[in-house]
Amino acid sequence: MQNSVVVRLEDVTTFQKSGNKMGNTSTTVEVNNEANVTAIANEEPNNVVYICGTSRECQLPIVGRPKLFEVTKTSIADFIPPNKSQRITNVLCGAEHTFIETTDELYSCGDNNFGLLGHGKTEFRFIEGLKMISSLPVHKVVPTTMNSFFFTDDGEVYAAGYNERGQRATGNVVGTEEPEIISRHLIGDERISIIGGGGAFTILITESQKIYSCGYNKQGQLGLGNFTDIYTPTLVAPLLFHGEQERVTSIQCGYVFVMLLCASGRVYSCGYNKVCRFIFFNN
Fold first, then answer.
1. How many CB atoms lie within 10 A of CB 140?
2. Which of 23-27, 114-118, 248-252, 272-276 has the highest mean pLDDT?
3. Is 271 among the domain residues?
4. CB-CB neighbours of 115 under 10 Å
5. Per DSSP, what are the bridge partners of residue 96?
6. Nearest alpha-carbon partner for 201 in 222, 220, 182, 219
7. Inter-residue contact 142 to 161 (CB < 8 Å)
8. How far apart are CA 196 and CA 255, in angstroms?
9. What value does the CA radius of gyration of the chain take, rounded to a whole number of Å?
10. Which of 4, 79, 97, 199 is 20 to 30 Å from the Cα of 35, by its Cα?
């Protein structure tokens, strides 16, 4: 169930929710389907953000665990000291964890079970406010429902979070507190270019456009033509249109379904469709 979302808006005085997008006239942002945090927006120059939703797992960047039913203005200067050269550039969230990217650093808060927040093992499971990630040279983070994937400066991808169905894509079902590297030998000795995931499953695309999937598959969301859970990254049949391979540019996942956007403009989907999440057109 989607309780709320995280967004960064240029102007939060007027914004609207439309499906899995929230935005205003100047900004539209992607929203994780299982997000539990509502709205974060940067207001220059004082590190002021706007938030609403539940903070049961400390996923709002404030002290305490309130449930906010209205957009509320708050300062995060206690966690990110005011610095004119350091601007908030992006916010991202999973179900119970949040990341804030700035021009200089990456911060996180919320549920840190199995190292979700990228800090490794911490004294407390939940991290209030915001804490800077210093354990990895991260240049991009992709949070999914209950996982986090960190792209490092040397081209590697580290996985953190839950792993009971092998959704970390590390070839095992072991849960660790430290982010774990996704070994390239599991994916044909290639680099990962795109990654996404939903409820206990992960889809990844390599630089040569090979598609791999792993994790929970009871609704066929892994795109493998079966309903068997897979605990190690497994190659998916290429997407072909009139014999030509499609190039995937974006992955969007719900809890038990996947949609792949291709450069051609075509969209491919798999997984649960009982309530008609997918729309099919006749050519």
1. 15
2. 248-252
3. no
4. 23
5. none
6. 222
7. no
8. 11
9. 19
10. 79
Q: Which two tokens stand for residue 25?
A: 């006239």
**Does residue 142 lie within any of the structural domains?**
yes
Of 190, 253, 269, the residue nearest 216 (C-alpha): 253
Residue 11 lies in a domain: no
Looking up tokens 């994780």, which residue turns up?
A: 32
Amino acid (one-letter) located at 123: E
CA distance 280 to 46: 47
Residue 239: predicted pLDDT: 95
C-alpha 187/C-alpha 168 separation (Å) is 13
- What tokens were used for 36? 């539990």
Helix (H) or strand (E) holding 205: strand 201-206
The structural domain count of the chain equals 1
Q: Is-cis flag, bond preceding 81, omega within 30?
A: no
Is 15 in contact with 9 (CB distance < 8 Å)? yes
pTM over 0.90: no
- Nearest partner of 48 among 75, 26, 15, 20, judged by Cα: 75
- Strand 147-152 versus strand 138-143 pairing type: antiparallel
pLDDT digits (tens, 9 = 90+) for 67-116: 888 888 877 777 876 665 677 888 898 889 999 888 888 999 999 999 99
Residue 191 in any domain: the answer is yes
pLDDT (tens digit per residue) in 190-210: 999 999 999 999 999 999 999
Picking from 144, 211, 152, the residue whose alpha carbon sits closest to that of residue 181 is 152
Would you say 93 and 5 are in contact if contact means Cβ atoms under 8 Å apart? yes
Range(s) of the domain holding residue 64: 16-238
pLDDT digits (tens, 9 = 90+) for 118-155: 988 887 889 888 888 887 889 899 999 999 999 999 99
Report how far residue 104's alpha carbon sits from residue 143's, in angstroms, rounded to the nearest whole number.
19
Residue 144: CATH number of its domain: 2.130.10.30
